[in-house]
Structures are given as C-alpha cells and as structure tokens.
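Q: My collaborator sent me two sequences in one message, no labels, and asked for predicted structures for both. Can we handle them in order? The first one she listed is below.
A: Yes, handling them in the order given. First sequence, followed by its structure tokens:
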Amino acid sequence: MTTVAVLADPPAETDALAGVAETGPLDAEAAERLYTATLRDACAAVERSGGDLLVNYRTLDAPDEEAREAVASAVAPALDDPEDARYEVQVGSTRSARVGNTVTHLLEREAVRSAAVLDPAVALAERRHVDSAAMKLRGAEVVLGPTATGGVWYAGFTEPVDFTDALAAPSLRTLAERGSEEGFDVDFLEQRPLVSDDAGLASAVVSVQSRTIAGQPVPGYTRRAVDELGLDVTPSEDGLDVRTGADTDRS
C-alpha cells in the first residue's frame, strides 16, 4: 500500500497557477476555481484507490489551523469520508525540500512500504493511475508520472533519493537521474497535464472536451470547472491559446 501525499495549498492563497493567472488566460478567481477543482479530483482519486491519502498542505504565512481548515473545506466535498482524511503541514523552505521531507519521513519514520507525492494541479488523474503506480512500485524503487514539458505530476519511491534541488527543471529527468545514481530501477506512468502552465492548461482543456465528446470518464470537478469557466482553445502560431467565456464575451 502506498501513502500518497497530495501537495495542497489553501486555494485562495495559492501561487500554483500563477503562470496562467498573472500573464495567461485566467484571472485570480478563475485560477482559484480551477485549482480547487483539480485538487478535489486528485484527492478523490487517491482516496478511492488502494493507497492511503495524506493531504500535505502549506500554510503560506497563515496560522496553521487556518490553513488546514481552508484546505480541508476545499477538499471535503470530494471525499467519501472527509472526517477520516489525514492532514499534515509541509516542512521545508523549497518545494524540493518539502517533497524530500515528506517522502523521507513516510519511508523512514512511519515505515510505509512506498510513499508518493502528487501535484494537485494535475488534470485527468484517476484512481487507475494511482493504483497503476502502486503496482509499478512493487518492481521499481522510483515511479514517475511525466508531463509533456518534462515535469512530473506524480513521484513515488520505496527508498529515498537525494532530494536536494530534485525538482529542478526538467524535474522528470532530474528525478530519474537521482534514482539511477542510487542504482534504483525507475519506471513511468501515463503522461498527464498540469494546469499550472499554458501548455498544460491547453492540453487539459482539449482532453476534457474530447473525452466528454467520446463519452469517456472525466474527473467531475475538473470537467465542471472547464465548462463553467467557459474554457476553450484556439489555434495560434505558438500552438493553442486558451480562452475563457469572459474572453468570448468581450470579443
């Protein structure tokens, strides 16, 4: 059984989607709604899998209890048993340090067989992906979920690696190198997009739309957020640009 830590922020305070909110297509309110949606779907996928859910939250300068309540309130509607959810504050001055501290604590102090972290900005992560990762961790010490731009949406371990700057871009290669340097086997999951950058957001919107058209499963909160925010894509010289319903209204 894998303990999966979802690296959550209080949605109203998060900077996780700053890349698409400050210069991209989403305003702050839309970014908060989309982040809340993907966070909920990520936590639901873990809770319904064979793993154990740990909501590992940042305080972002708020009092601990206030931050915990903000995250718990955001996550609760997606959980079958919200009262049973486990919440622990993140420790560390950088994202790499926080991930390393969480994984190492779970493996060495709590003696879990395998530990993983999951980025809550991931779109279209389902229970089957979490269960697939757990199966792969029976044969490999490191399992990574890649994004199209060289990032990771999931990182699982049965043994710690050197986490110093381990999420330095491209984090997929960096983490694979860290595992290989220890003599560990490294395996990979399906590619999933993160809505925290323009390319990932565009991919997520197209994937949600396409799977909905085809009658295929789509994580519910993310699907509703894409629909209610009026998110769509248009071709551009750089690939695909994401537009919102507000953009359409102004045109």
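Q: And the one she listed second?
A: Here it is, processed independently of the first:
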Amino acid sequence: MEQPKTPASEFVRELQLSNKIPPKLQVTFDDEVEAALKALDELESKEILPEKNSATYVMAKRKRSSFWRVLGLLKDHKKTVVVLVFLAIIIAALNMVVPFIIKYLVDIFTGFFIGKSTATMSVLIWAASGILIATVLGQVFESIYDYKDYKLAVIIRNHIHNMAFEKYLRLHALFHHESGSGSIIGKIDRGASSTYTIIEDFMFQTVLPQSLTYIAVVSLLLWKNITIGFLTMAPLPIYLLVTQFLASKVYKIQRESNDIADTLSKEAYDVASNVFTVKKYGQENEEIKNQIKLQNRIFQKDLQLDRYWRWMRSSQAVISMLGRLAVIIGAGLLVFYGKNTVGDFVLFVTLYGIAYGPMSQLSLVVQRVRKFLANVEKMFDILDEPIKIKDKDGATALMPLERELEFREVSFKYSEDKNWALKNLSIKIPAGQIVALVGRSGSGKTTFVNLLLRSYDPQKGSILVDGHDLRDIKQASLLGQIAVVPQEVDLFSRTIKENIAYGNPDASEADIVKAAKLALCHDFTIKLPEKYDTVVGERGIKLSGGERQRVGIARAILRDPKILILDEATSHLDTESERLIQEATDAVIKNRTSIIIAHRFSTILKADMIFVFSKGELEAAGTRDELLHKSPTFKRLYSLQFSE
C-alpha cells in the first residue's frame, strides 16, 4: 500500500532528491515530527547539515532542543541550584519520618491489644513530638526552598524576556515589516511566562522534590521488602509511556492553537491601532465577527486538547489504582503469613500513597511541559532569528560628515521574489548640500533612505560616507549623525517633552522649548493643560496629524544632526502651517546635509540638486529648470502640481 503523503514524508523526499539521504530511507511513522527526527538522525549520523528550508525540520529540531535550552538557563545560577537540591533532599528525608513513626505506633498498639506491649504514655508523647518536629522543620525548609525557587525563576524569566525584547529591537527591518508587533510581543510575553512556569512550577516545585521523594520511598520499600518495592515501581514506566504517547498528540494541536492565538493577537492589535478607521467605515460588527471566528477556532483546538487530557487523567487513575491494589494485596499477604507486622502493612500502603503523588505529578509535568514548550519555542524563534545587519569585526566609528555621501552602483531588492527596488544607482551628495528626491510612489525614494540608514544592505554596490563603506562603520555612530522626519510620525505614549527629546535625552528643557519653537509646536503645546508634560497617547493619538508632524520635526531639530532627512515632512500640514514650517526648516537645514523627499514641489524648489527616480533608477539630476527640459517624469509631475 502506498504511504500517504505528509509534511514529514515530503521533507524526507526532498532530502532524498537532493542526495542528502539514501533513497532507501522510508517514512513509516504517522507522527510527522517523529518521521522528521528519523530523517535528521540519518543526516546527523553522516555529519550532513541540511538547509533549514522545511517547517518539519525546524519543528523536529525544536522538539529536541527547547527543553534543554530552558534548563541551560540555570547554568549561570549553579550555587542557587545546589542549595535547592540540598534543601529538597532534606525535605524528602523529613517526609519519610512521619510514616515510620505511624508504623511504630501501630505496631505498639496492636501489641498492646494482644498483651505483648508494655508501651507507656511517654511513648505516645515522644511519637507526637517527633511528628510535630518533623512537620515544623519540613515547613521551615519548604518556605526557604519556595523563596529561593521563586526568586530564581523570576530572575530567569526577566532575563529571557529582556533578551528576547532586545533581540526583537535589533532585528532587521524586513523582519519587522513582515511580523505583527502585537503578535511578536505576545510571543515574548507568553514565552517568558512559560519559561518561568517550567522552571518554577515544574522543575523545582514538581520534578526535583517529587523525584527525590519517589526515590526515597522506593529505596525504603526495597530496603524493607524487595517485592513491595518492585510493586511500587511498576506503575511509573507505564505512567510515563501512556503520558508520552498522549502528550505527543497534544504537541501539534497546541502549536496550532498558539498559531491561531498569535493571529488573534495580531489582528486585535491591528484593529486597536486603527479603531477610528473601523468606526468611520462602520466595520465594528465585521471586526467582532472576525475575532469571534478566531476565538471559535481556538475553542475547537482547546476541546481537542481537553479530550486528550481527560484520557490521560483517566488512564493514570486506573494505572495508579491497579498499583495500589497490588501493594495492598502483597502487603496483606505478608501480614497474613506472619512475615510482616500490621505496622509494616500501614507503612507500605502509606508510602505507596506518598509515591503516587510524585508519579502523577511527574506524568502531569510531561503533559503540561508540552503545552508550555510550544510557547517557549515561539520565543526562541525570535531569539534564533539572525541579525542580518550588524557591525562587522573591526568596524570603526564614523567621524562627522565632511566631504560627501555616495551611492556607488547600488542595486537592492527587499526579497528574492521581489523586483529590484533600486537598480545600479549612482549618486553623490556633497556635504552641506540640500538635495531633493522626486518620483512617483514606489520609484525608490524611501528605499534610498532605508539604505542610507542601513536598515538594509544592498545586494550590489556600496554606500559610502566620506569614502567609508557603511558596512565598515559602527551603526550607532552612523545613526548618531542622522535625524529623520518620516511620512508618518510615530510618537510614544509619553509626554510631549519626552517625545521631542527622544533622540537627545540629555537635552535641557530650554533646548527642548527652542526646538519646539523652531518647529512651530510651542504655541499649541503651552495651551494644553499639562503643557510639555502632556501625555500624547498611543502613537500620539491625542494630537492632530499636523501637530504630530511638528513634534517630529522638533525631535529632529533637537538632535542637531549632520544629515537631516525630511521624508514628506509637510504632508500633514495645511498651507499656512506648511509656509511657516518652510521658514523654520530653511534655517535648520543650513550647514548640514539635507535630503528632502516630497510630492509637494513647493517644499523642494530651494534644493541645490534634484534627483528624479523612476522605477528604481535615476532618470535625471539637476536644477528645476534643467529637469523641466531633460526629465519627462519631473516635467509631468511638475505640470500636474503647477498647471493651475
């Protein structure tokens, strides 16, 4: 019978066709992760590293490494781990004291009733005192253990969250364009919380103490009676096998549920960011329907998960009960034939009860770790994302621009399946010159700016600052000389003062006010209730478009950059405000290299040089009068705006 096609079989077939594994290797597993693991084993045994071009490959590698990566976070906290292990051993030992005291009392009382005991009240008092002391000491050590465990887990959670957030901020621009902010932040939050849960709840509240308790119970039972010891151990491997089998089914469902949850989070964030657009178009009901639809998909996945959990709990209960019955029968027969006392019977049954807790908890760990590992893996996806734009070894700090910026035969595309955004572009911009970039939407103007900021590296050619390739320069020193006023100014939900000072946080209040006056945002700011301490809301929602634009210009002015980029900086201003802004920026752009991108030609007519872009290429360069004669694109755009 022909084997059905699965993602795993397709993955293996792909490896076979590329001669990375022998054709004889067959996929016979139903579980696609296990099939991929088999293929990976075949590769690793031959020291072959396949390309990471398969989702199944990635999933299989995650399954192997994620749990150990979480445990690897403990290596920097070895002293704390040693203390926790020591405390757990003491607690496990104290847990064994009470059952033995009870066994001792039962033997005394049974002997008393048949006239073979001479026990006195002092024995009972001493036994009660022993139970009290063991219990109090156990609580003291458990409190210390819980405190150190909690502190360690919180430290690691905060550390991994900060690592992931830092990585997110440092990732390349294309990653941010393709990934939803809400979805990514959700992955980081869930991943960090799940890391905390795995370490705190599972490793140190369950696995370590319960494992030691189980080992202590089995060791004592083997010492007292080897048959009862083996009867107590028998359910554990069956427990783990059943749990492992069912948990493997859960893993895939949980990841699918997480993927839907990421989509839900991303779409909810998108709606929240565009809530006024939703209301203007009366699309509230449609957005609610979309959210409900996604919630229902998650609900269906949760029902599947619940079904597996219930099967698991029922199976565990049956296995545990069978083991308990075996111990009761075995211990009872030993008493019946006079080989053990009634106290021994009570001890065996009590210790089995203590052992059952660890067994059920250990199997519960296996089932729940699968769920939380799915969250952790999403976070590791971010941590594992390569930083494509980074300082090379030996990168030097950029000195203040003195001579020129140069694009030398630069070609760039955003991805392999996209068209060239810039093609063989060569441009020189002398230091201190005002230049304008003109062209239709999509002609390459914004890409030019992105490359200058080194948000991306070109596939061909080089970008030079005073003769130094950007790839040889430290990014911080490059960006420290540049200020940008983008098409859409994004403000933080902070005060106006903090937003203006964002690029220069050490600026004095007087400098902030001076920049605000130059950008013409001082007058409206002082009319606000809290003036410069007014919080502008998420993305500056409490300000108008023109006000946000002026705050963005003030931010750029305060930075006092060597290179100023105005990317359609007046697109949200009325005619009067635009005129005033032009007067302010005329003074600001002096003595610095300024690059202006605008569809409104009134903002660029004072440029020393105008570059006309068309379909990613430089069509022409020159002054306005020169371009009207030699650039069809410039002439057409100019005529459209000044025809009246």
